Amino acid sequence: MRIIISPSGNLYGSENVLYDYLKNSSVKFNQVFVPKGSQFETKLNKSGYNTFGFSNVKKLYLKIIWLLLSNNIRSIYCNEAGHVKYILLLAKYFPNVNFIIHVRIIEDTARFVKNSQNVRVISISKTIKKRISVPSNLIYDGYEFKKMANWATRKESQILKIGVVGRVTKSKGINLFTKQFIEIAGSNIEFHFFGDIDSYFEKSEEFKKLKNISNSIFHGFISDKSNIYCAVDLLLHLNENEPLGRIFFESIDFGKPFLGIHSGGIGEISDLIEYPYTFSKEEIPFILNQIVNNEIEFDLDKLENSRKLALDAFSINSYSVQVDKLLK
């Protein structure tokens, strides 16, 4: 028997990676534990997966302990590392069970003080791996490139619609946005924000400045990616410490040029696929201003070459095979 735990029930990057993995894995999973009533639980149920909805973490692990005592569980895979303390405790008392923990965000890297022989850790990038104090397996997230849309082009007279996808919060680099792009805003450009607004950040002076930027439009979280990418001409991403960056894959899959900071996971992806449009944070305003004023255009041949390299480097099939090996 094999089970999966998804600590989060949102439909952000980690949940979408898990969903794609389930579709492509050769391993049979008996049950997926997911927050009760969540969007992810609904999506899994509609696709026919056997789920168990939990509303309390402690009750969840009491249920898992009961399963460990009464069933022949071979492995437990946790899709995020927020539950590390529970997993490590179970690993101590159930040494014959294989536990796998996927570390997806920088905040979770500090949770590992020690490890057990029956616990395997997966890091999603070198950025994450170097921050974890215990050994980990580096496996870049896979992505299903299904759209392969034609690359977006823009006429000089058109308004440039720039998409900013992700939670509107300081950790996503929005503070850089408010400091560096206020002067760029004008009648020929629109900034479209797709993501929930962090309640703490919403009260800040930085957010007030952001709301006052001319032509800034806030859409909130939208689960249908097509609705996002059909509304923009390019994607702007300003997180200097992105763990990996599924948003990068989505952008090039939907044929929308990606403009981001060459650091963290975004820098890793950029190097692996020879992507030419990531820059230092100091360069971004200058480059964006050139794009707005039609002084620079995206090279469609280079973009297409990067997409072809991404198909191989971040293949969902390759990803699934690597994760399967740790679970078998």
How does this structure look, described?
The protein is built from 14 helices and 13 strands. Helix 1 packs across helix 14 (316-327) and helix 6 (174-180) crosses helix 8 (205-211). The chain has helices at 13-24, 39-46, 57-70, 84-93, 126-129, 174-180, 199-202, 205-211, 225-229, 246-253, 264-272, 284-292, 300-313, 316-327; strands spanning 2-5, 31-35, 51-54, 75-78, 98-103, 119-123, 137-138, 160-165, 189-194, 216-218, 234-237, 258-261, 278-279. The chain is elongated and about 70 Å long. The model has no long low-confidence stretch (mean pLDDT 92). The relative contact order is 0.12. The strands form two sheets. It has a seven-stranded parallel beta sheet. The chain has 328 residues and is α/β, with parallel strands linked by helices.
Using brief descriptors, characterize the structure shown.
38% helix; 14 helices
Outline of the structure:
This protein is an alpha/beta fold and 328 residues long. 38% of the residues lie in helices and 17% in strands.
Show unreliable segments: none
Shape: elongated
Number of helices: 14
Question: How large is the radius of gyration?
Answer: 21 Å
In total, how many beta strands? Answer: 13
> Can you list the strand order of the major beta sheet?
3-2-1-4-5-6-7
How does the helix and strand content classify structurally? Answer: alpha/beta
Summarize model confidence as the mean pLDDT. 92
What percent of the residues sit in helical stretches (DSSP H or I)? 25-40%
Largest sheet: 7 strands, parallel
Terminal residue distance? 11 Å
This entry's quaternary arrangement is single chain
The arrangement of helices and strands along the chain is EHEHEHEHEEHEEHEHHEHEHEHEHHH
Strand-residue fraction? 15-25%
